Amino acid sequence: MNDAASFAGGIDARSIIDASYLVTAALFILGLKRMSSPVTARSGILWAGAGMLVATLVTFAYPGLSNYELILAAILVGGVIAWWSGKRVAMTDMPQMIALYNGMGGGAAAAIAAVELYGLAGAGGHSEPLSLAASSLGVIGGIIGAVSFGGSLIAFGKLQDLIKRSFRFGGQQILNLLILVAALVVGALVATGYSATPAMVTALFAIALVLGFSMTLPIGGADMPVVISLYNALTGLAVAFEGFVLGNAAMIIAGTVVGSAGTLLTQLMAKAMNRSLGNVLFSGFGDTGGATSGAVTGSMKAIEAADVGVMMAFGQKVIIVPGYGLAVAQAQHKIWELAQLLVDRGVNVKFAIHPVAGRMPGHMNVLLAEAGVPYDIISDLDEINAEFETADVALIIGANDVVNPVARTDKSSPIYGMPILNADKAKNVIVIKRGKGAGFSGIENALFYLDNTRMLYGDAQKATAELITAVKAAG
Question: Which of 241, 314, 317, 411 is the least crowded, having the fewest Cβ atoms under 10 Å away?
């Protein structure tokens, strides 16, 4: 009788958990939908966060769950680290922080797979034998999670300048293929139980981790936003696979949502650079070492801030194009102050954002939102490109490849065919730049040498402050 009551109670608890996971799925999807627009993105994050909170809380009611102290301690430690890092990490360092956190997600999925597979190998862990389907999913999820973890660590190192060059050699892709085959062979031996020893399980994860390193080391820094997005998709996929192994609906739902969103974002970013994912992963482009694509004629022509201030103050339309240099200088508040001054003078001011501006998707949008720039004057490439021809001034702050006109004209350029902002078609182009070097990808920018372009050299924040002073003095 007591056993029957316990069984009924377990069924009731599981039903409540499953219903809560359904609520979690709805909150995740609603949050993701709201994150698609800058206007509602903040609330979208809160909705998705609420979904994760619900999933976490109801998991404590899972029948047979134990080690509550360890779980609570892990949540506390992780929460404190996340809160501290979120407060301390500068906006310019957000790409590498996202890479690191994404890697942690892949590592967590791999760790779950490791627990299950070590149990299969007789080293403790799972209390019941895994079916072939479950062990196979565990192996696949473990490989994907370990690859994502290893690759994300390399991406973090590149963005943080801990790894200052890409490592390439002949036959590198063949080596990566051999490593992948080795991981699959060892994984098959483990999943089928043919050689499911602790040593083989350890070898499986070691090989997958090396594959993540080996895949990412050749990729240049300019391609890191796409790589981070790809590994985000892989992390979601790994979590979904492990959710099937554990029979956990929340993990399946969360992993599927993250994997789908990451895949779509990866495709959109690759399209924004007019490159296939295979080209990103295997071409080696991304840090060409300063090599130019074709001859660049002419010379860069400097201009003083006072002259630029007058030019903008008496213009009718000014389009501002922010790039990574704006983020480095933390000049978003200054540039909005400048924009407000121009608007007060009756100038039509707009901001133009390229899909891959900065070092992660939405990087520039977040910076401008932080400064309080209204969403209705921020336009993406498709919305703003036709307006450059009627702009009196296009003000470029730290952007490079996304405004390089060789993408339209030079078939030998690595960025040929990449959709760019048509800043070169403005009547006057002003480029705020710290020096004369090439951009992050190493490609010389022909825009800087055009007759209608002038270079305002200096740190973006200092140069913008000088422009504010010049506009105020324009009368």
Answer: 411
